Amino acid sequence: MAETIRIPEDAYFAVSPLMLFAHTQGNFEVYLRQDGGFVLYTRTGEQFTPAHKRTMHEAGVREVFVLREQSARFRRYVEENLGAILANEDLPVRERAGIFYDVSVSIVRQAFTRRLPEVMGEAEFARIRRMVRGCTAFLSRGEGLRAVGGLIGHDYKLYRHSINVLVFALAIMRTYEVDEESLVECGLGAILHDIGKTSVPREILERPVKLSPRDKDILRTHPVRGAALCAGMPLSGEVLNVILFHHEKQDGSGYPSGIAAQSLPLMVRVVAVADKYENLISGPRWQAGLSPFLALRALSERYKGKYDPDVIRRLVLVLSGAGLAGKGAPGQDEAREGGQG
Ligand SMILES: [Fe+2]
Ligand SMILES: [Fe+2]
């Protein structure tokens, strides 16, 4: 048996053994807790085998430990394997749902601290986390986990994009007077808005140059593909509208239908702005993203007439730190003025 290693307890973080997938290789060490210390279980680069999994299961191991200094490597490993675990019907739904929630919240945390102003404190984070809990609980039922597993497995970057869109969309939606149920629906729409891209070939999604007109046409089928993919899920019409119409424009130049987007529900217009803003700050695969300032300027100048100006105005308020801190806070009334009802 390997010897017990004396490293301070807080140098480790605990993960579920279900996060270690058989037949994969982790670029990090895994420890077990034993006799008040930590025992090295697998080495960096060692393959996790079904035997490892079985031994842990038989010993009733509920937590394994990874060194904090290797957390970036562990995160990368999870990103690479998460799609497969969520789609794995052999694993209990509860465990998969827990992992799905944890990963989603960690992306929300990153977006929250890096991309929103500091005035959005812990209370606001807790609120968004509650919405995410509602969304992930819903998506953990029926076909949901397989669908998001497909999305994550197809392109993890796309999933991160979807969660970032969720954070911006919820921050905007909050400035309207809507109930919690609508916020969760909006979050679901944001998580699923690009799910149709799972049936667009990966080479097109990952092409590091501008797309040819033909590839663009294929990419533009994703809203319709997404709506078709989700038709069997018990989603509301609002959520399906978000999936189908998030690329429509106010001036009718969008797709798939080319209808004038001001006639679309608020949730669709909000996700459309959050999506465009996220794409502008992240940048396409062939170039760096814009700063928040330049992205907002692009939304109101370069894309003038394309998106709902009131939604853009509210995004500006959100990002400037106004209209966020709850009822009665400075900016809140301003944000409500001109609301669309
Ligand atoms: Fe899209
Ligand atoms: Fe998108």
Give me the secondary-structure topology.
Blueprint: E1 4-5, E2 12-15, E3 24-25, E4 30-34, E5 37-42, E6 47-48, H1 50-58, E7 64-67, H2 71-87, H3 93-115, H4 122-139, H5 144-154, H6 156-173, H7 180-192, H8 202-206, H9 213-219, H10 222-230, H11 237-245, H12 266-282, H13 292-300, H14 309-319, H15 332-336
Antiparallel strand pairs: 1-5, 2-7, 3-6, 4-5
Helix pairs in contact: 2-5, 3-4, 3-6, 4-7, 5-6, 6-7, 6-12, 7-11, 7-12, 10-11, 11-12, 12-13, 13-14
The protein binds fe (ii) ion (FE2) (2 copies).
Question: How is this structure best described in words?
Answer:
The chain has 341 residues and is mainly α. It has a domain at 1-70. 53% of the residues lie in helices and 7% in strands. The chain has helices at residues 50-58, 71-87, 93-115, 122-139, 144-154, 156-173, 180-192, 202-206, 213-219, 222-230, 237-245, 266-282, 292-300, 309-319, 332-336; strands at 4-5, 12-15, 24-25, 30-34, 37-42, 47-48, 64-67. A 3-stranded antiparallel β-sheet has the order 1-5-4, with no helix packed on it. The chain has a two-stranded antiparallel sheet with strand order 2-7. Helix 4 (122-139) packs across helix 7 and helix 13 packs antiparallel against helix 14 (309-319). The longest helix has 23 residues, at 93-115. 37% of the residues are buried. Residues 324-341 have low confidence and may be disordered. The structure holds fe (ii) ion (2 copies).
